[in-house]
Here is the input.
Amino acid sequence: MNHKTINFFTTGRYALVDAYYRYIWINTYDEAICHRIQQLFWSKIQTLVYDLNTIEQYHDGLIDTSVCLNWQLLDVDRLPMRIGLNIAGFDQTHQGGKLVNIKPEYPLPVERQHDLQQQMLLYKTIMDWTHRTLTPGDLMIVSRIDQIFQTEINLNDINQELFTLANQYLHNAGWLSGAILTPLDRHYE
Amino acid sequence: MNNLIYLPLAWLRRYDPYLQSQEYQHNHWFNMHSVTLWPEHLSSRVHKLNTPWDLAPSVCPMPKLLHNSELRFDVVMDSITHRFCDYIQRTGKTPYMSWSGGIDSTSILVSLLKVGNSDFLKKLVVLYNDRSIKENSFFYHRFLDGKVSTLNFDQSPLHVTADNYDQIVILDGEVGNQVMGSPHINSLVRQGRRDILDSDWTTIQDYSEIIYGSTDFHIQMIKESVESAPVEILTVFDFLWWLNFNFKVDDVLLRKMLTHVYDLTPDQSREFWESGIFRHYAQPEMQQWSLVSKNQRHQSIEIMLKYIPKKYIYDFDHNDIWYAHKTEQASMASTYEKCTFGDSGIIALDSDWNKYSLTDQETRRKLGRILQRIS
Here is the structure.
């Protein structure tokens, strides 16, 4: 079943850059969420977190969700021989590089590229909402949300799994369920 | 200390830094580790290296090039798995598949899931840890968790002992990288330098452009081996793959073995090596495939690195995101570091599977004499 098309928007100085293809998946002002998405999506894509403010050509508002896939951050001199979360520096925020506005060669069809980008943005939005209501006792639901994003590879399937999860928590954590349903816009189904 | 099959030079040079000194007569062997991912233990599968220590022939002899060798990776992989499953059925041993979540071990796991019958799959145990799940969560949750037996080896390590060494078989993805390509090829592709890979390797003026940190001694040694290669080494792609295929296979086959045979006698160790550990990528058919598919793999770089095994996995799991984006990552070899060569005291293995420990004064003296550090 196809659900409503979700289009999230974000901008900011911290960018998730594809470690291999070098394009920007998302950029946001929230450095912590960038690192969290880097870790959580590692089995789907391998990315590095960059601080765009350290790049000469960058200024606030230059890049946002609607255009970031058309920007590449070239830093070839520092490309690692191997990529791995266990390799020193991979979990750090990187600086410098050169921004170029050239549409790269995507390894996935464009619609799947956007699907994956929207998965990241959906996760970010859910985390924004759940953190407003989260208590220590709710950590289980966060790990279940994480598992959905790690396991499912299509936005529609993620949407449906989240909807099911939110319904399971309606009886004892209605606010939290609402926090999941809000970005899905499915409160009344 | 003759007929050595493993001697970790990288560890020795940390133990005795003088081995790297320009004043030391054999320093060139120890200064080769400036090259990224250079083998800890150095051996050539096609020619005898003129080392001060006595090396045994390769534990993985170079296969003969057959004109009717199979060109399809899936056919080769699945035929090896058929043979392995028959072996398990005949012997009743328990197969333990060490799964990192990476491309090489996932390919093997796909083959086991495709080819293995229900009896085999009931016996199969997949060894994994949290890193494996992080590398391929979709595969773990869709095909492994709750479907086959799994064992988190960080929580319950599998120990090979005198009681179980002849009842189990461990599989892993070692030698996958040597069969497919090389980290130097990956590095050039990532830098957009595919043009270099297509060029004639003999025209290269500065070899450090293609092998970072290489010395004249390196290059001379590689050139000597090329003369004995069973296939023509023409391009830089060929040259870099050959370097990995010829010089690193013994190292990756043996680097974890100490963990496995630490508590075994030499006879038990030999038996475990021969029938307790099974490497798909080191099997003669796969080694032949690597020789005959060289040009096919070179061309497939236009699509992506490791295209052939990734396509094999994609045809099974249909995970387009992993297929498009998965890159080679550091292997799980480091997870075995509790029992590594050197740090465990054991510094060498010979072809009779005798272990040599530096805790033994006589061994230290023998090593000192072999290295000509003492007279």
